[in-house]
Predict the structure.
Amino acid sequence: MMGKLSIQDLEKISQRVRKTTLLREGAGRAKITVHMGTCGIAAGARKIMSTLLDEFEKRTLEDVILTSSGCAGLCSREPMVTVELQGETPVKYVDLTPKKISRILSEHILGGRVVEEYALAKGSERLY
Amino acid sequence: MESGSIMNEHPTNRYRLHLMLCAGTACVSTQSFKIKEILEKELKKQGLDREVLVVMTGCNGFCAVGPVMTVMPDGIFYHSLTEDGIPYLVEEHFLKGRPVERLMFTPPAEDVGIPKIMDIDFFSRQTLIVLRNRGLIDPEKIDEYIARDGYQALAKALTKMSPEDIIDEIKHSGLRGRGGAGFPTGLKWEFCRKSPGEIKYIICNADEGDPGAYMDRSIIESDPHAVLEGMLIGARAIGAEEGFVYIRAEYPLATKRLEIAIGQAREYGLVGAHIFDTDFSFDIHIKQGAGAFVCGEETSLIASIEGRPPEPRQRPPFPAQAGLWGKPTNINNVETWANVPSIINRGAAWFARIGTEKSKGTKVFSLVGKINNTGLVEVPMGIALKEIIYDIGGGIPGGKKFKAVQTGGPSGGCIPARLIDLPVDYERLTEAGSIMGSGGMIVMDEDTCIVDVAKYFIEFTSDESCGKCSTCREGSSALLEILEKICMGEGEEDDLELLEEISYATKDASMCGLGQTLPNPVLSTLRYFRDEYEVHVRERKCPAKACKALITFHIDEETCRGCGICARNCPEKAISGERRAPHKIDPDKCIKCGICLESCRVFGIGAVVVE
Ligand SMILES: Cc1cc2nc3c(=O)[nH]c(=O)nc-3n(C[C@H](O)[C@H](O)[C@H](O)COP(=O)(O)O)c2cc1C
């Protein structure tokens, strides 16, 4: 039997569950797309995905959406992800490893600074 | 209390995709639970079961193409899912991230599928207040409702507002009853609050008796807590400590979800004594309907809860004065209650900005009949009929012509095609001879006979008349008799006036809304389609070619190639002829089933004609 709810509890439940359900609202502060074409998977994209999922579980990453999409057309540089902060140009990161993606998470997603050394060369690389 | 709650099975935020699979009644009937099982099996096989979550939601609304599923966060919408298609979908989309085009919705007359739910007209043109959580939460988990601001309105109403403030807010919002008559809700609450008496009751009317209507069922199925929260707020405003939901026995899924919702709310102390540690206590019971249409009428509904036969009684006294067990009682429709939390949360001014001068907010309609996108839609008051039928509904199937739309169920009327630009609100619909009613919308094409439509509704109401008032009982059967006569080709010239006369007498002398409104389908069709009645009576013909007694089938000699397909298919062996020579239908044997017409048409010949 559950105790009676107070108004503060309402807020707590809401905060906690929203972490799960925010995904459904389709709007996040940031979005990470892991490119999971056959080439990406062969190059280790699943590992990148599971590293991200682990990190998501460890840290409190509330409004970050993690999604997958097909091959980005640059198969030789897989695994690859696209990071999109709200209102900013998407950045593509290439030749990723679990270590690199953790750093991107801390510096770009949480810190707001593009990790230039892993990003696709500046200028023409910012597709879209 | 520790908020490590029991209600949510998914405490982690590890999932990257949520598959919002519809578990409304229509999709369940097309096997959405089987689809769930296979999805979960395939996800496991691909090692995605910890990354992708399947969520069973309430009715998504697009019932025409079920089972449907929306993939979040991207909002990719899939429809008509089959078991066979799931393995491919899981591998392509959920593993490799390539949405599967052939499962996307392609509007009639176009050939490219639309990936995103919000780009599909059926969804993008709707405005969701009552159904704001549909497809977004699992209706069986109170925590998910809370995550969408659930019970915040109740908290506000209990701690920051007096009962009078709540009533004022509802009054200023302009909310009117969604169960039929459109009575201002705030005013109704005020009557009941001011009515003398210690004990008061509130009731939620979920009897939904109109044929073809399923708005209330879907609201309860997709967001039962919204209805419950609305009732809690109403009870506080009125001063009631006990409430009832009177629900149709034919709605097992909605009843189950409501029971679960009440159980969870009770466990959280949101139903029970001293809610949020205030002096407000409330308990609620579910009562299953007794099955008759008249049970939805408030006084018979009350009689039914009390265990008496469900017969209406004279008003006044109104339920607000003497209702359940003689106590002041406030009764509102499901959709009315479900509007309340949003109004309290977002304010009367916000609500009043939506809609027209005297009709505020949105209305949920069930769109059925000769329409491409059958389903449940929520639209702002004042939207043009045309937008509902063509933009949201996708128009009429088979390239047929739109003839009329029936609104308001058996108490409503038919609106002809030439009024297609009519804005849909309480006033305009009444002026046009119909009513808003509870939200049934039946679309008719050129093959629908208008006399037959009137007959259908009168058949229903004469069957459902409780018989207490002779005008209702006798009036409805007299109307039915005349309509049957006209459809049989035995109508007489003065029958049309007689129909009108009986209609007015029935309206004037019946005690409850059933008798007072049952003639509306007759009167409105006479108003707009009198010529069609006249052709039936004078020429003994049915222009829509629907009344069997008034049509004959024959074969055009010039066109017939003598292939014999019609003769082979005729169940009565009424067709004969030599091979490669024109065939003939024997009118004495013909039962006018139309099978010959269909088979001739399918073979592209078109020699069978109806006149
Ligand atoms: C024959 C008859 C059937 C009715 N059936 C229903 C019904 O199924 N559901 C409903 O909400 N109201 C129905 N009503 C209207 C109710 O009497 C009552 O007006 C309504 O529940 C009030 O709620 P509202 O003010 O929120 O619309 C019916 C009325 C009549 C005359």
About this structure: The pocket of flavin mononucleotide is lined by residues B 177-181, 183, 205, 207-209, 293-294, 296-298, 331-333, 336, 438, 512-514 (CB under 6 Å). The longest helix of chain A spans residues 7-21.
